[in-house]
Each structure stands twice: as structure tokens, then as C-alpha cells.
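Subject: Interface between my chains keeps coming out wrong

I've been trying for a while to get a sensible model of this assembly. When I model each chain on its own everything looks fine, but I need the whole thing in one frame so I can look at the contacts. Pasting all components below, labels as-is. Any help appreciated, I'm running out of ideas.
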Amino acid sequence: MEILGTVIGVVVKSLIFIVGMFLAAAYLTLIERKFAGHVQQRPGPLHVGFHGLLQPIADALKVLTKEDIVPANVDRVLFYLASLLAFVPAIMILAVIPFGEPFTLFGIEIKPYITDLNVGLILALAFGSISIYGVIFAGWASNSKYPMIGGLRKAAVLIGYEVALGFAMVGPLMMAGSFSLREIVAAQDGFFGAFIWYQPIAFIVILFAILAETGRTPFDVQEAEAELVSGYNTEYSGMKFGLFPLAEWYIGTFVLSAIAVILFFGGWKGPQIFGFLSPFIWFFLKVAMMFMFFLWVHWTLPRYRVDQITEIAWKVMLPLSLLNIFITAIIILIKG
Amino acid sequence: MSIWIEKQKVEELKKLFSSVEVYEYRDVVWVEVDTQYIKNFLKFLKEDPNYSFKMFVDFTVVDHPLHNPRFQAVYILYSPDFNKRVIVKSWINGETHPTATDIWKGAKWAEREAYDMFGIRFEGHDNLVRMFLWETYPYFPLRKDFPKEGIKEVYLPSLNEGENIPSHDYDPYHTRVPTLEDLEITERKRINKQNQIVLNWGPLHPGTHGTIWFLFDMEGETIKNCDIILGQLHRGIEKLAEDLTYTQIIPYTDRMDYISAICSNVAYVNAVEKILDVEPPEKAKWIRTMMAELQRINSHLLWLGTTALDLGALTMFLYTFREREKLMDIIEGIAGIRLNSSFMRIGGVRYDLPEGAIEVIEHFIKDFPSRIKDYEDLLTKNRIWIKRNKDVGIVTKEDVYQYGLTGVMARSAGVPYDIRYIQPTDAYGEVDFEIPLGTVGDAYDRYLIRMEEMKQSLNIVRQCVDKLKTLENDKHIATENPYVLPTLQETFTSIEAMVKDFNLRIYGEQAPIGEVYLSGENPRGELGFYIVSKGEGKPYRLRIRSGAFYNLQAFPELIRGRTVADAVALLGSIDPVVGETDR
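Reply #2:
Try treating it as a single job with all components included. I did that and got this:
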């Protein structure tokens, strides 16, 4: 019975998470468009619903009802697989992200996370890497020149930032002494306990890696529209196309922002001023701030060239993250 | 002081070359040389330190069907050391002529254009293929015996055929259009695939700013070889102009460089005024200068926005368009039309300044410097911007002379070639401005130069506004001149003006026999008009020397060995407008 209860609990929670993430992703598009609009001195979506509040739904309907064109000479299996491969792993990272401590509501203990694996962070990294295959496959399967260049560019960038990202995460991990995201949050006590004060270098490297992984502007070489039309997703249309930006720009950015918040900003910790909701409010507030930061960067800066990105990844970010591990280790040794 | 070489200095050449004839019209000086000496003559002019006509400006052909030999080649050269120009002409023996590409690389495309339009074969040209038309096209359209409406030979019946509706009574025969096979043959002729892939960058591509068709022969992402297929926007303006009066051509000049229509207008009307010997009133000159400078800021803003957009900075695009919109409104308020304003007239401008125009422009002058500062804050010291632009597409002084690069391309290499300065027209001789010069010659230099030019243009506009305040009650068009169209007011109030208006509109401005080359500083480079008049109301030959055409010619050389990402940055810094390159 206990197992059945757990299974039902996990299934229900997963459904809530997935549906919630879908809705959230839809409204993240609205946030992005509004944000970009205000950065660029225009109002953004304004006419569908109050201040464009129904715009995401209209967009979703539009994308879903568009004709889904599959070019004749594509590699069909990979072509269909690619958009799923970009989307599903991105949403699977949610399985290991905790949104707060367990709490009791109406006598039932509710855990606001799906699993609390002791290798949660590694799993998140692994899913993140798999989702890149979507882009690379899309580029290859399209059997067209622009998408192929876009996919290859992403592959080249991937190798650079993944290494730096992995090493940069070691710093907070060493301080927390665990891979479990819950325990990492638990290790950060109080305002000055947040790891951002101790691991600024790791934070910078991770910012770089998140921008690169989610394909946001200084590093959006794979879909540089002035060079490659639209890059890897040039041949896609309809919802198969829609899944790529949804996975990369919205779900990917959101989930990675959440991981960054957990690693550096004490997750859901904050003053208990909103009652039992305060962990959620703090967590989403912090994640929203991180998300907005990425939007801000995206809509301000020009774009690097591929070789310049790999240069930064290998020559700047990797040594920095290694240096960070070294410094952290020495401090831990001295302090005990 | 005239920019054209003194007649006696050219006369001295008679001692060296037996068959040299020197002619002069107004101050334009041209030399006629026998065909067999033409190459030695050009080489001599280029290399002799007393002449040193190092810079290639333009090459074209004029067709005289009743003369034997029929075609005449025309070279326009510039000597940067002496700040002098000269036109060299020679008759073409039959349909073959020695190439000048081994003297100036810039002659390459010009000769291809001559081959395309006149069917002249150039001996020694390394890849003599069509410039604008497709490879299998059998005619040479700029020849005088080619009908203006084209040769209708393809049967393309109307869908409404058979129904007896007069308005649907089309001719079922049409001029030739290229088929896919024709385009494939054209592509094959341009580039030989030697590496991994040939990327068709264009004709319709977000990065090309118009319909240019680039062919990149690539190894990975590195471009090993490149060629450009132009002509998707070729409208045959030169051919059309041969059948229009001088005033009727003005709207066509708008549609060449549609980003900076007023600058093209000004360059054209100045050339026509020179051949007609019309002097516009003082006020018109200042209005022209002011409008041209406003248009230059407008054009540079568009360039800044789109270049930043190409390099990924989306927001810059909307910021620059905010300012550009204000300029558009000013231009619309003065000229009545936003983009293709056709505001200039022979002998003046179309309208007087409307009430309040000066105040609006003054407000813009006050407001704009802070906006430029915003742009510079966002880009000038931005590491990514610098990394993307530094060392991309370096041009040297030698390149400038060889290719006939003009405008910002020339100035980025440190060559002070600015038509506003070396050959001032309108009020440019009286205003005070600086010419920013580059040191390296890369895309970043060109960015800095264009930013500085906007400030200088604003400075010129400020001086024009101050001057125009004192000229409030002057005439804006010299209607007393027999070549100048009367204003609408005059036409409706006096019968003489009505008759003059009728005559000029129907028979055109009867220009004296002669020829003139005059250029203006377009934001894209030197826009020159070479007009041959045979005493009719329309030009016998109107050659348009497009700055963007020659600037673009250096592109394949500059991009070799770099990546596609650099192609975007380089093309942005060359800033061609296809309407002008193709004409």
C-alpha cells in the first residue's frame, strides 16, 4: 500500500509539475516579450486580453494549428526525434529540483519536489546535456546547409562550456558536501551564508554557461539569424518548431536559473514574512530575478563568433573554474 | 579651383603620344587616345609622377551606332596627389578592347558590366561573364538598337484571354525571364566548387540587406572563395533615362539608393545643372545641403541599426529607428514624402521650407547628441562589438586606389576622399566640417567614422539652419532661368510660365552638346553621373557611377579566409544598397 501511495503521489506531483511548467513556460514567453518590449521602448503584446495577458494562449493556438511541413529529403526519424529530444530532457530536470522544504497542509505532509536524489545535480547536468542533442540532431536531420552549420556550431560551443560548467559547480558542492540540491540549500544559512559570497568566480562561470546552454544572445551562434537564417530550426514549422524556443529559451532558462538560485542564493530561504507560502515566494522571486537578468543580457548585447566563444570557454572560463576549486579546497583545508 | 586637370597639362602629353586629342566642356577635360595606345597611355597616367592618376573612378562605354567604330570606352580617373580628375576616351575596335584589369583591379566589374550591356569583349579579362543579366541572355540591352521595352518573344498568355474585355487585352508575348536552368548555368560560371560546400547566401537572406546573391565556397565555416551575383534588382535605369527628359529622371535617382534618396537627387541635379549651366538660388543651395545632411544622418542611423542587428544587438535597431522616425517626419514635413522624396528640382528645390520646419530641426539638433551618446555607450567600448569588428575586412590605401573604393571605405583606410571636400557643390564650400579618417581600415574604424560623420553632419545642419534663418524671404528655385520649370503658382498666373512649363515638360531641357561628370558624396560612397548630351531634351547616355557597386567589389577579396560570421560584419561595414549597385 505504501508503494502504491508513493507511486500515486509521484504521478500526481509529476503531472502538476509538467502542466505547471507548460503554463509557466507560456507565460515566460509573455514576460520575455514584455521585457524586450520595454527595453526597446515599445509596449510589447498589448491587445489580446488585458495588457496582452492572453497572448501566450493565442500564440499556442497559432503554433498548434499551423501546417506542419516536413521537407521531402530530411532524415525523418531524427527530424521528429530532435524537437522532442530538445524538449523532454529540459522538462525532466524538474524532477530533481526542490521548490521548498516538506510542509504539512490539512494534516498531509506535502513534499514540493518529485525526488530528492543524492546525485540530483549530476542528473540535472546530464539531462541538460542530452537536450543539446536535440539541436545537433535537428541540424543534421534537416539535410540543409544552414541548419547543419547551426547544429555544428552548437556542438562546438557545447564542448567548451559543459566542461567549465561542470568544474564550476564543484565549488558550491565542496562547501555543501553533497550533490543533493536540498542539502545544498540546507548548507546555506542566513543572508551571509549564501554561497554567492564565497563562490563569486563559480557564479560568473555558471552565468556564462547558462547563457551558452540556453542559446541566449552573446552566445546564440546556432541560430544567428543574420548569418544562418534561423540556424538549426530553419526547416522546422508548426509545433515542432515551437518546442525548440520553448525548451531552450524558456524552460531551459527557467530550470537553470532555479539551479543557480539553489547553488548560490540559498534557494527558498528568506525571512518568513508570507506565512507558509514564503519559501515558494522567495524561491520564485529569486528565480524570476535570475530569469530577468538573462533577458536583460539577451536584449542588450551583440553576439560573439563561434571561435571567440570556444576561446572564452577554454582559455578563460575553464582556468577560472579550476582556480576556484583550488582556492575553495585550500580554504576548506585551513578552516577544517 | 576646378577639380579637372588643366588643359595645357594634358596638351603636353601630345609630345609623348602621337594621337592624343584634348577636349573641354565647361571645366570637364577629356582626352581621346587611339585604341592601340590606350593601355600604355593609362599605364603612363597611373605611374608618371607628374600625373599619378592612381585612383580608378569609373569605366563605361558609349554607343554611337552611326559612327565607325561604333563604341567608345570612357575611363574616369582621379589623382589623389594633385586632387585632379581626367576622362580618357578611346574608340573600340569592333567589339574587342584591351582590359584595364591589370592596371586597376576595380575595372573588373565595370568591364563585366560593359560586356553585359554592350557586348564588348575585353581581352585579358580573367572571368568575363555577365554582370547583372543571366548567362544565357542573348542581347546587349544598352546598345542603341535594343528597344527600350525589350524584345517580346516569350509566349505567356493572360489568364483572361478569350474574354473580350478591352482592359484585359494584353500582349501575350513578353520579354525573356530567366529559368531555373539559366540561373544554374549562371551560378556555375561564377564559382568552381573546390571545397566542402557552396553556400548560397542570398538572394533573399536576412543578412544581405536586399537581393544580393553571395556564393561562398566553404571549408567548414571558413570561406575559401567567394563570388557575388548581382542583378536581382537591376531595373535598367541607365537605359530608361535615355528616353526621359532631365526632370523626369529625378524620381529614378530616388529609387536607386532608396535609403538616402535626397543625396542621390542632389548629386543628379547638380550634374544636370552643370551641363545646362543653371545656377540655383542661394537659399536652394543651403536647403539642399541641409536636407542632404539630414538624409545622411538618416542613412547612417539605418546602417547602425541594421549592422547591430546583424551582429545580434536587436535593441540597437529599435533605438536607431526611433531617431530615424523623427528624421523621416522632418523630411516628410519639408518634402511631402518620407522615403523617395524627389525633392530636388533643376535650378532649386520643389518647395520652400514650410513654416516651423526650422524650429523642428533645431529641436532635433538639440536632442540628437544625447542619443548618439546612448549608441556609443552601448557599442563603442563593448568588448563583444570590438571583438566582432576589429581586424575584419582591412582595406589599405592601395586597395582604395585599385578598386575605386569611395565613401567611408576609402576614409577608413586613411584616404581623405570626400567629394564634399574635394569638389564642393551647393553650400558645402561655405560650411565648416571635419572629415574623420581611419587608421587601420577595418570594420571598427568604419563604425567609428560613421558615428563621427553623424556628428559632423549635425554640425553642418546647424550651420545651414543659422544661414537659412537669414534667407527667409529668398526664392527657392531659379524660375527666371529658361531651363527651370516654373512653380505651380506661376504656371497658373502667367501665360509665359504656362508655355514654358509645357515646353519643358514635353520637349525637355534642350541641353547643349557636351558631356559632364559630376559626383556627390552619397552616404555609400561617390555617386557620380556621367551625362553625354547631343543637344536633345534627353540625355544621350546617362552613366551612373555607384559607390556601393565598387565598394562591394572588394568584398570577395576581403572575406577570403574568414568565416560566415565575419561576412555579416564585413557586409554591414561596406553597407551596400542593392538598388544602387544594380541600378
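Reply #3:
Confirming on my end. Chain B has 21 helices and 17 strands.
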